[in-house]
Amino acid sequence: MATPVIGILPRRARPFFARHPWVFAGSVARLDGEVKAGDEVRVVSAEGKFIARGLINPGMNLLIRLYRWVDEPLDREFWKASLKSALELRRQFCHLDQPGTAQRLVSSEADGISGLTVDRYGDWLVVLFTSHALWLNRKILLDLLMELFPVRGMLVRFDASQAGREGIATPPEEFCGLAPAGPIEILENGLRFEVDLQAGQKTGYFLDQRSNRLSAARYAANRSALDLFCYTGGFSLNLATHGKASQVLGVDSSAAAIERATRNAQMNQLQNVEFQAADVFRTLESLRGTDRRFGIIICDPPKFARNQRDIDSALNGYVRLNRAAIDLLEPGGILVTCSCSGTIDRASFQAVLGEVATLSERSIQILESLGHPPDHPVAVSCPETEYLKCLIARVG
Ligand code: SAH
Question: Domain 76-182 carries which CATH code?
Fold first, then answer.
């Protein structure tokens, strides 16, 4: 049977020729042939010129994700080449061979496989699908992963926060191979962390901040530190150990994360790190009423903007949060502030600090403007893949 053809509206095809992988329903003019979720389609311009092949999820706003810009099928050989290319990058440049290594092996759009994230935690993989259409084609991808990167076990998850937007109820998680008996221990910058693959957020741990944690630590010597949205203590432990911070307070609203963070601090014999399960906004408010101030503050909130419509309110949210945070910073203190919203670009996030400087009447100097490490690459054809912005700034 011929592969169904999807026509793009006049003058709307440019981003797709430029290899942006997301075709929203509003760009589509016509559909020739019957399609169901997960089907392969050929996408053509209004003039009938071939653009790319992708997988369709009918009825959804993000209608098609594009994968192949030559007019050949999305078959086993194609997926194999795509996965091999992703693994090759990590083998060459990201030191895959050490025990306890934790890193991203496949980074969705950034590796040309929109909707598939694979994180490696030692001998285990967590495979996270964010695309329903790709999820329906998962067997071939999982078989290939096991063939190309044999591990003891692989946990396959569908991103719960994405499920509604992809039009499905969250399917159950499944293990291929062995299931680990409990949390997995990984090493990050020489520190031991336990990761709960099943109950942890996202794939269990936030690997993308690995190098930023070390960068932030360089500013922490003899300073008291506040780690906002600390999750399982990634920044806190790096600041205490590598940064020689005098003391660290980590805050997160998830009780499970705080429990894990406390264990992680104990596993690394750290006595000067304390964690609190609390809402960050309330904590900032109550600390303001005390005379407790900090020499360095980390601010790493969850994503504020999911799409273009959220941008303005997200920017306001970042201004309010950072404004409240710097009220607790000593003069000359260091603010390490992050945004993981892909739809907010670096310039806009930097402008947030401009606004905060004005409102607080304090000078702010950016010392470093950081992103993510090479196992989380940026695809230039998809600017949203530069999602993580981490600014290290001195506040006067
Ligand atoms: N800094 C962490 C990652 C943070 S992810 C690291 O380095 O690993 C965002 C975190 O914010 C999650 O752990 C989530 O539980 C927490 N969170 C979300 N809303 C919150 C709130 N209002 N107050 C405190 N924590 C919150």
Answer: 3.30.750.80
For the chain, what are the domain ranges?
5-68, 76-182, 206-395
pLDDT tier for residue 201 given thresholds of 50, 70 and 90: confident
Q: Is 254 in the pocket of ligand 1 (CB under 6 A)?
A: yes
Please report which residue ranges of 74-192 form alpha helices under DSSP H. Answer: 76-93, 132-136, 138-148, 160-163
Q: Which residues are catalytic?
A: 340
Contacts of 383 (CB under 8 A, 6+ apart): 345
- Nearest atom within ligand 1 for CA of residue 235: 7
pTM: 0.94
Domain spanning 5-68: CATH 3.40.50.300: no
The predicted-structure confidence for 90-139, as pLDDT tens digits, reads as follows 999 887 667 788 999 999 999 999 999 999 999 999 999 999 999 999 99
